[in-house]
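Customer ticket, subject: "Can you confirm the structure for Imidazoleglycerol-phosphate dehydratase?"

Message body: Hello, I'm evaluating your service for our small team and ran a test protein. I'd like someone to confirm that this is what the system normally returns, since I don't have a reference to compare against.
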Amino acid sequence: MTMESKRPTFHAAVERETGETSVRLSIHLHGQGRASLDFPVHFLRHMLHVFAVHGSFDLTVSATGDVEVDDHHLVEDIGLCLGRAIREALGDKVGIRRYGERHVPMDETLARAVIDLSGRPAFVLKAQFTDARIGTFPTELVHEFFKSVANEARMALHLAVLYGENNHHMAEALFKAFGQALREAVEETGGGVPSSKGVLE
Ligand SMILES: [Mn+2]
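Agent reply: Thanks for trying us out. I re-ran your input and got the following:
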């Protein structure tokens, strides 16, 4: 083989520095739900805490950014680093389940996450948010965050809020569903590469 293959280690650390943001992120995908989150976007900290707990991931994020402009750059770049870390942690994906899906209710809201760790980025979010902001957090950044994750992790990520009324619940149910679906997708099955093509890039 000319390509260097790398077995899944289930953990990775990523650092990324630009003129807009500085992000250090590490994740253990077979962890215990411990989160250490230090960056100035409070709502995303709440969401990533939920993601880590519900996926039983150990997640550390330390980041700064130009939040005086708005939260956009930092949220996007944390998503990008999370996606990159997931991809690195999974290596050649030998012996993992590959697919994961969950429906998660949160009070009046029902959300769904379906994942294929296919090696090909695709992202769909179907949600009817009714407020432009959740607290101070721009609601549209929910879409931007997950899109960055899906692109960099090279996964197909299909998210939907099937119904709901409270925008905080809708976002939080999506992060819970994403965490639980990802946890399923990264489970070890003991098989080979879960693809009829024999390769998942
Ligand atoms: Mn909450």
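A couple of notes from the result: Residues 6 and 153 are 15 Å apart (CA to CA). The chain has one domain: 11-185. Feel free to reply with more questions.
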